[in-house]
Amino acid sequence: MSSQREGSCRFRWPWCKRESNEEVIRTLRQRNAELEALHTITSIIAGSLELDAMLEAMMQTILRITRTQAGGIWLLDRREHRLRLAYLEGYPDEVQAKLREIPAGQLLEGEVAETGEARFIRDLRKEKGGAWLLSPRFLTVATVPLLTKGKVVGVLSIAGEVGAISEETFRLLQNIGAQVGLGIEKAILYHEQQEQRRLAEALAESAAIVGSSLELEEVLDRLLEQAARILPADALNIMLIEGDRVRPIRWRGYEKFPCAEELPKLDLPLDTYPSWELMMRHKHTIIIPEIPAEMWREAENWRWLHSYVGAPILIKDQVVGFFNIDGSRPYQFDEADAARLSIFARYAGTALEHARLYRQLRTYTEELEQRVAERTERLRARNARLQAIFNSTSEGLILVEGDRFECANPVAARWLERTLNPADAEKLRQAIVEVARTAREAGEESRRELTLGGIDFLLKARPIEGEEATRLVTVQDITPWKAMARVYERFISTVSHELRSPITAIRLYAELLRNAPEERRLSYLDALFKEIDHQTELIEGILRLTRIDAGRQRLTLVPLDLATHVQAAIEHHTVMLEEKKLHLEYTPPDPPPTVLGQPEELGLVFHNLLRNAIQYTPPEGTIRIVIGEEEREGRRWATVTISDTGIGISAEDLPHIFKRFYRSSRAQRYFPHGTGLGLALVKEIINLHGGMVEVESEVERGTTFKLYLPLFTSQAAMHEVKAKAAA
Ligand code: ADP
């Protein structure tokens, strides 16, 4: 009974008269200590917003004041209707797991949370058949609700051996529970706000990273970094599915664990873990609060891993990989963590999708670049070709736009800037502009000829497709054609004159013959035949030269003995030589040189030269013919020299004697029946054979013609002859 009275007296204030002085003093001290404890704890709560630190400090203080060994604080998750452990001290390891999460109504703490009533149990063995007894070390327990405005926000519990907790301590705890609830709720709110802010920051950062132009690997690394900021992870990684295999591509935080080296090399079948299969099937996050120990029985390096949360990475609703979070403690992750992780997994999916699109785009861009480069190269090559043609053509080319020269090739530039004097250059410029304008106005090609500084120009302006205002003007130097045309005109008039004279003579002799007396007829007939021969020779000569000019004189070259053909020419002229009593000096060579030639043509050459020597040498003169071989200009030649002691050729006539129809006036006087074509034919034919003709002469002393023909023995000469003949 006394103990009961004592017990009831404990709740009285110290001025209770029945108490002894010592008792009063002890009670006052006790009250004082309690007030101080309460004060300390409320100031801890008031001074701190960091929930974890605050709860730790509070628990430490309570354990110190109450002199108990173990205690814990749980916060109530109203939505989930369960207590979550916020701080635990002094409980053995095997108990901790059970206390981590306590559904409302279960265990002593759960009951207090549900009823809102504090409980002090002196001996747990006697309560509910010992069901609440978690450890034989802690038989006494005091559990109080943490209240805010009468509402339970959590539970505080201390435990110790029997008798370790007094009624006063229980009362103090109740007071604390009633006082600290608000502070705790404030701290929880603050904590949640902080969490929210950090989450918002991390997500904003993640969105920026995904939207940035960083490389995929860097984007994923930065996402891992942000996820690590928000989630209570020890290590985290991103794995990709390739076919039916799973491989990690980026990771973070494994360096402190024994699997650090193994992780990058992982390459596992997709069905290795049920968690992957579940994520594949449900496309949802998965939490494994406590990984069964047997799972890692074989995998020594992974024994540290106790909890896991994972999220599938989706692209267009297809699971392409996993965002894995690993924890070294059981129950390290909750639903909120899983929800947050799913956001990071979404970002990772977007990043992978971006990377895929970017890769596609890059491939496309590269292909495009390649095509553009090829096309540019083709255009460049074509441009270079056009430029080369533009620059190397012998015609002047000018692009004229309006009155302006767009560009001019080097030939045109040379005429405009160097060849012509400034006044003529300006005239050419004007003419170019005008011919371009005429072409533009007429809408078709226009031409114009003009002569400046002794050069005959032909200007032609043509339109350019797709360029309305631009005309391409070609400037041709047609001086050689003009000169040729002049020569041709002169040739025609000369030829017609030359042909007409013998015909006039023939007609004259024919007239004379008709009315001539018998005795004169024969001489007229002789003269008539001479004129006919002359005419025939003239026509044959002209035809032969025309054939050569037209390039139609094809030579069929055969090896021939020069001496034979020279002798044939001599034999042909024996009568003439005798008539004029001319001396012929000729020794046949031994051995006779062989040349490649056309017998008929070379025969004509010897014939013409010998006939000239006979014609232009007065009676009793001497003609010498020498056939030999000679080294000249690095090759062997066969030579034929025909010299006479005739009238010779003056220095003024000498440069002209190979021209067609040219006859010196002395020659005309001395021998009126010449054609002026003999030497021209000699020169052309010898040229065709790859040879040369030289002449030396002195008036009244005589003339020497020397022919050089390539020796047949000389291979080089033969080739050259063939080449020339083919040309
Ligand atoms: P032609 O019919 O006048 O002989 P050629 O072409 O054979 O025509 O000769 C041209 C000119 O060269 C001759 O008119 C003559 O003036 C001169 N000539 C050619 N051979 C001799 C020569 N052996 N002696 C002097 N003059 C010559």
How would you describe what is shown here?
- The protein is α+β, with helices and mostly antiparallel strands and 727 residues long.
- It has five domains: 23-189, Beta-Lactamase (2-Layer Sandwich); 213-356, GAF domain (Beta-Lactamase, 2-Layer Sandwich); 386-477, Beta-Lactamase (2-Layer Sandwich); 482-549, Orthogonal Bundle (Helix Hairpins); 558-726, Heat Shock Protein 90.
- The strands form five sheets. Strands 3-2-1-6-5-4 form a six-stranded antiparallel beta sheet. A six-stranded antiparallel beta sheet has the order 9-8-7-12-11-10, with helices on both faces.
- Strand 1 (70-77) and strand 2 (82-89) form a beta hairpin.
- The chain binds adenosine-5'-diphosphate.
- Adenosine-5'-diphosphate binds next to helix 16 and helix 18.
- Adenosine-5'-diphosphate binds at residues 608, 612-613, 616, 644, 646-649, 653, 657, 662-664, 667, 674-680, 703.
Summarize the structure.
The protein is α+β, with helices and mostly antiparallel strands and 727 residues long.
Helices, strands, pairings?
Blueprint: H1 2-9, H2 21-47, H3 51-66, E1 70-77, E2 82-89, H4 93-100, E3 101-103, H5 107-115, E4 119-121, E5 140-148, E6 151-160, H6 167-211, H7 216-230, E7 235-242, E8 245-252, E9 268-269, H8 274-282, E10 286-288, E11 307-315, E12 318-327, H9 335-392, E13 396-401, E14 404-408, H10 410-419, H11 422-442, E15 446-452, E16 455-464, E17 467-477, H12 479-515, H13 518-549, E18 558-561, H14 562-572, H15 574-579, E19 583-586, E20 594-597, H16 599-615, E21 622-632, E22 635-644, H17 665-670, H18 678-688, E23 692-698, E24 702-710, H19 715-726
Parallel strand pairs: 19-21
Antiparallel strand pairs: 1-2, 1-6, 2-3, 4-5, 5-6, 7-8, 7-12, 8-9, 10-11, 11-12, 13-14, 13-17, 15-16, 16-17, 18-20, 21-22, 22-24, 23-24
Helix pairs in contact: 2-3, 2-6, 3-6, 6-7, 6-9, 7-9, 10-11, 12-13, 13-18, 14-16, 16-18
